[in-house]
């Protein structure tokens, strides 16, 4: 991005901010025209839903903040938009985002052509961290890209292993692209942004909430060719990601573990019920997807 704020960029930033916090946004988009027309309707108060005060000024600040970060804003009009992946959300629930905020040199559409989402417990055991690192290292060597949340545990192990293997990991955020969450991962996020990609559907400055974590789960499932679960208890965020993947017919893989460990309960449950395939290596995943 440059320091110049074009009318097109401002329109996109304005519509993105208006729709990011409104549940009716995707439906409005499906029924509307080009971005400029939607922006005009919003400015004239004809959007069909409540508009936050100071929206235009917030949009200008968003553009300035993205410029400071060396980040960019893409919409469905951009060549980088991952149409084959996000079309799943439109077909299922009309919940695809209008825009995505990206920071990093890699292209999102290119990375998601061969992407595996890796998820699991934030309180990963030594076994979970070791297995995650080994599988991700193998996947990276085989030409796969790793997607994961910005979180402790399995997700962090996946990002670090991909970076160590000279890959281009993608961190999908549940906050604005400039918000360090978790705080202890600010350095890791910057490293990911140097060679991979940070992805958020929320404007700069947006904080993490439980609802945004749930929304993050649908993106992690939709943007990938498959989902890998290493460790997790039932009912957590990895279970939500797996449920989205099953809904969108995205293959789910799971790593077995000690029957004495509560963190292996979800992988075992998914394998036992046929919702996930048992794998023990990155080569297993590569073979099954190829």
From TrEMBL:
It comes from the Bacteria. This is DNA processing protein DprA. PANTHER family: PROTEIN SMF. Pfam families: DNA_processg_A. Coiled coil: none annotated. One of its GO terms (biological process) is DNA-mediated transformation. Belongs to the DprA/Smf family. InterPro entries: DprA, DrpA_SLOG. It comes from Nocardia veterana. Residues 73-288 form the Smf/DprA SLOG domain.
């Amino acid at each position: 991005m440059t320091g110049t704020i074009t009318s097109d960029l401002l329109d996109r930033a304005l519509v993105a901010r208006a729709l990011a916090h409104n549940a009716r946004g995707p439906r409005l988009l499906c029924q509307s025209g080009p971005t400029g027309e939607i922006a005009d309707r919003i400015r004239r108060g004809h959007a069909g839903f409540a508009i936050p005060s100071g929206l235009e000024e917030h949009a200008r600040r968003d553009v300035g903040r993205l410029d400071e970060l060396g980040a960019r804003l893409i919409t469905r009009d951009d060549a980088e938009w991952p149409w084959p992946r996000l079309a799943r959300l439109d077909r299922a629930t009309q919940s695809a985002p209008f825009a995505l905020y990206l920071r990093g040199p890699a292209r999102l559409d290119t990375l998601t052509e061969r992407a595996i989402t890796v998820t699991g417990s934030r309180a990963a055991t030594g076994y979970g961290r070791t297995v995650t690192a080994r599988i991700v290292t193998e996947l990276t060597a085989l030409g796969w890209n790793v997607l994961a949340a910005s979180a402790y545990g399995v997700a962090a192990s996946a990002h670090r292993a991909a970076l160590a293997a000279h890959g281009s990991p993608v961190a999908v955020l549940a906050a604005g692209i400039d918000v360090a969450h978790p705080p202890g991962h600010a350095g890791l996020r910057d490293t990911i942004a140097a060679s991979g990609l940070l992805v958020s559907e929320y404007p700069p400055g947006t904080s993490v909430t439980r609802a945004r974590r749930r929304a993050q789960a649908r993106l992690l499932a939709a943007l990938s060719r498959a989902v890998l679960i290493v460790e997790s208890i039932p009912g957590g965020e990895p279970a939500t990601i797996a449920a989205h993947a099953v809904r969108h017919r995205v293959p789910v893989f799971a790593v077995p573990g000690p029957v004495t460990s509560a963190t292996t309960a979800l992988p075992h449950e998914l394998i036992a019920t046929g919702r996930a395939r048992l794998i023990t290596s990155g080569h297993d995943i590569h073979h099954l997807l190829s």
